[in-house]
Amino acid sequence: MKPEVDGSVVAACAVVKSFGPTPALRGASVAAGAGEIVAVMGPSGSGKSTLLHCLAGILIPEAGQVWYAGGRVDTLDESARSSLRRDRFGFVFQTGQLVPELTAEENVALPLLLAGTRRAKAIAEAREWFDRLGLDGLEQRRSSELSGGQAQRVAVARGMVAHPAVLFADEPTGSLDSLAGEQVMNLLTDAARAEGTTVILVTHDPRVAAYADREVIVRDGQVISPNRVSP
Amino acid sequence: MSVVPVTLLGLLERQPSHGYDLKRDYDTYFGRGKALPFGQVYATLARLARDGKAAAGEIEPGAGPERKRYAITPRGRAEVEAWLAEPVEPEPHLQTVLFAKVVLALMLGREADTYLDAQRAAHLQRMRELTAIRRNGGVVDALLADHAMFHLEADLRWIDVTNSRLSALAQVVRP
Ligand SMILES: Nc1ncnc2c1ncn2[C@@H]1O[C@H](COP(=O)(O)OP(=O)(O)OP(=O)(O)O)[C@@H](O)[C@H]1O
Ligand SMILES: [Mg+2]
User: Fold this and answer.
1) Hey, what domains does chain A have and what are their CATH numbers?
2) How far is the CA of A98 from the centre of ligand 2 (A)?
3) pLDDT, tens only, B75-97
């Protein structure tokens, strides 16, 4: 185990992952501590989303290790990884991740419902987030009736509703303009700090990355440490 | 150290040169339409020699200041190295210095991407500080911070694009 893994909540260690002949990760290592917000930056196609998916136990690396809370993730079977994702992790993706047939509050309640929470309790817990994220009055809207910024705030609420230990966010401000994106980031980071949630925040936007405690840069499937200066 | 003296020193690191050659190379790679006056070249070289960063060779036949050949000293080399390794203070309007660092690093076969990574980290650190000001300060502070952020963002875009063009740029500036 690499030293940087010690004391971290989530970590990837020399992770290798290919898609057919395409190497997406070539020995990527990153670690985040409890309550830390880490931005993952880098050029398009460099492997940021693949790294996030490996950390979250969605993809299994061909080599290297993935750790969560001191235990290996990459060696778990699919059902164990699936419970880990459901019970400990939250997710916010770029756009179009809300279920269009459901209302906004049902979308937010979804992770609780999938975890077996009773419907009335799940909806009640979901509703608390509407006030918190400035979404009052939008509880019954379908996702097609929300603006992009509102939809992303609903997505943040859904990512946080089950009080995850780690929130994985891949371009959470997607195609929003700077003010709407800023509002999403303010709410996301406030909520994460209030709950002590660790956040892995994939973004190419330096304004979004500036909400993190620190950034790592992915280039050609590897994480380069930002402060290395040659002697 | 300001850009012109350290750039001339860097050019000297490639090989000992006359003032005339230094001026020509400076104008080609760093002048960007603004030629360096001969007077400034010689005054700078004299100062570098006085400070022990460059050494003037024998006066060659023909005499006159342009007949002196200068070589870099170990102290001069250390100066170039230190300047390249140090990220520029992140504030608006640094394009000229950033540009000079990248070109000089490539010219001397140094790792320009290492420098760019250090600069990106310095810029992002400053953006984090400004983000905190925008969140916690009043609207006037926020507007001022915004202005600085947009400029830093422009620098960062330039850093990213330059990073992906380093090998093309190296081919142009390396002998
Ligand atoms: N499901 C997949 N099938 C095949 N190739 C893939 C798949 N997912 C990613 N790749 C490839 O792996 C590499 C890394 O992709 P990844 O999505 O991780 O990049 P990224 O850094 O997130 O890029 P972007 O900023 O554009 O989202 C790319 O070359 C991509 O084409
Ligand atoms: Mg991606």
Assistant:
1) 8-223 (3.40.50.300)
2) 18
3) 999 999 999 888 877 776 666 78
